[in-house]
Predict the 3D structure of the following.
Amino acid sequence: MLVLLDHPVPTSVEPLLRGAHILHRPTLGARPGALRGRALARDRPDVLLTRSAPEAAETAAWGAAAGERPLVVVLLDRVAGPGGAREGAARVRRPRTRRLPGAGPAASRLRVTVCPSAGAAEPPADLYARALATAERHFLAERVRPVLAGHLGAVRPEAASVVLVGAGVVNLLTGLRLLRAGHRVTFYDSGPDPRSDAPWTCFGCSRGGGDARMFTLTEADGYFGSPGGGPPPFTQPVKDKGWGLADLARLGPAETAWTEDNARVPGWLARSLTEDVLGYNLTSDRLWRELRHDAPELFHGVGLREGILRVYSDQAVLEAHVARQRVLTDRHFEILSADRVSARHPALAAAHRAGAFVGGIEVNGFTVQVHRFLGVVADAAERAGAVFHWGRPVDALVPGEGGAPDGISCRDGETVRADHYVLSPGAYGEALLRGTASAGLIHGMVGVWLTLPDAGRGLKNSLKITRSGHTAADANVTVTEGPDGRSFLTVGSGYGWTGADPDNIDPTQLEALYAAVDDTASSFFPDAFDEARRSGLLKRSRRYCVRPWTASSLPVFETTRTAGGGLLLVTGGHNTGGFAQAPVTAEAVAAALRGESHPMHFDYHPNRLRMFYGQKDARLPE
């Protein structure tokens, strides 16, 4: 994406304009007409970021040079001048699109969006960050919309056969949603039935890790920086407080490109991408509540526990998260001092005495025991007519006419065909996704788990722990129940990047990750940790799962036409938020199979980052 910005900006805005994606020509806006028109024709930007709408002659020159590409104008409304003074007050309102009268022959390709100021208190840098984010979103939409319309326009919105590859929590809820829409659903999964007692190492992420999942409004957060201000330390070993869990000798060009993609995302775009993801958490919040109302049987016997306590080791981080919660929701949450946390949750009294946290907040959210939940959803899907093929790995897409997918190939040699396909292979889809736009985007990130006894039931809510600067910086502690009714604390934490191969795990770094989580568990629950170590529970309960991550921190939603006129959809790469966003992902899949567009089809488009950088491999599939 190339943006032409045609006017002077305050000094505070200048750092946003660094990089090859922005041309700053500060004198053009003062002389609209022929001069700016020549610049538009010469530079052929994708977006004009301006205070004054282009005249018809300028649009004509720009349109002639741009060929058939859409022309996007982001019009700043009452912005700050170079000295920072506001040129006028403006009420807070969303960006709005409008047509320009007399815009010339290129009018049909011109899209003008007004990006208003949020008022006199808004810093100019924030306004321009929003304007650039608006430009990127409209640039994306204008390029994706016609191709997506072509794909969805061919869909016959009727009951159809759908094959879902992968039976983790995202695809299970998707399949249940499709069954309720009248589709015929078949699952293929490489692992055993999650209702079986097979060893945990045989399963994927949803069933292979700890028996716990959490929903809050900040799941699947963006991962673009380390506490030191640089990019996340993907290749720095875990033992050195990095995220590198892989055998570095087995990493190659694919991993180098992936980490470089993450490191070069500009700050304003990182914030915009994170806002998109968190917006879907808000939608999922509503959908989870609707699901619990409409299908309460799915939540019986799965350890559902309401409310999340978040505790912090650093006061500044606590205050930042309080501010963030206020932006995300108008629902009530309570801010607690360390004393009040300890008084309300006696299980944390020892950690309080040791100064492990400075305070916390109680927020809306819930936890479930995901292993039980998977079994309940699978039962419901079977009752509704779903067919499951467990232990049936799918290795590849079968190409049809013109290279479009025309089936899936199982490892045993069988080719399976259906009207539609939904692929959600987690971190294990490198071979399956070959040839799709999603190929190479999803890498593995290990999280580790352990279990502690909770005999005193002193923790009333499941817990999120933020330990600034620690190797296990973010930990979830879920109050769970064993088969005999005893209470436990299931602790999950850690970031351990494997690269493209989820099995590329250095045992030494894995032990370092376990040690970091042990430290969190022992710091916050010293008595329970000692008891778990003495009884052998600590060692027996150790396990890990490999989560699907993307360099952009954006999940993936790919929409492709099959050779038979149906759809092949790829969903995944949810970072730490697959469970959280499962209901809204299911809605986006259901919309596609009705032939309708959904915002997720645009926001999670697999080529979004590639298109922004103008990479040649960002061509949209026909």
Summary: Residues 329 and 394 are 41 Å apart (CA to CA). Residues 79-95 have pLDDT under 50 and may be disordered.
